[in-house]
Design brief:
Helices cover 31% and strands 30% of the residues.
Length: 181
């Protein structure tokens, strides 16, 4: 069974916050939600609902609220908690193609955009599967399979960590984005 395709970044964000794509970073759709549920002890990532749009990393609670109030069109933004980037073991984009899996990845422990820009590689087929099996915990690997089945012709962005982290217990991988290619 396939689910409805993800056609826009705004549609993705709405569904991401609802948990449709599995383990995620705790995310807040507006400043009020962040102010009510956020914490001064965490770091945040101000994200844009426009594909490829600006993003701001490593903001403390007050910086996140302040920066959000400064941006044009605050409704085009949302905030996620910063993942434990220093614990990154593998991250990238994976999709099914005619010949099997295609994986663009990096081992660099930086936010994904920066990591892929600094050093990325790609694998196909069994080599991609083996790399994923070596870095994603069993729960994360199983869920990745579910996402690939539910969303054919989509790219799945992920980051795997050396420790469990995210909205679901016992997952070492956060699924950052699902988008149609």
């Amino acid at each position: 069974m396939t689910w409805s395709p993800v056609l826009t970044k705004g549609d993705f964000v709405r569904r991401y916050v609802l948990g449709e794509f599995g383990n995620a970073s705790p995310t807040y759709q507006n400043v009020v939600a962040l102010n009510n549920q956020g914490s001064g002890f965490r770091k945040y990532h101000l994200r844009n609902r426009i594909a490829g749009g600006e993003t701001y990393y490593d903001l403390d609670f007050f910086q996140a609220i302040s920066k959000w109030s400064e941006v044009r069109e605050p409704g085009q933004w949302y905030v996620s908690e910063m993942a434990p980037t220093e614990k990154t073991i593998l991250q990238g984009e994976v999709m099914r193609i005619e010949t099997g899996l295609y994986l663009l990845f990096s081992h660099v422990a930086k936010p994904m955009r920066d990591a892929l820009r600094e050093s990325s590689q790609s694998l196909r087929g069994l080599a991609a599967v083996m790399l994923l099996r070596g870095h994603l915990c069993a729960n994360s690997l199983e869920w990745l399979g579910v996402l690939l089945d539910r969303y054919p012709d989509h790219v799945i962005e992920f980051s795997a960590y050396s420790a469990n982290w995210g909205t679901l217990p016992h997952y070492n991988t956060v699924f950052w984005e699902v988008r149609k290619y």
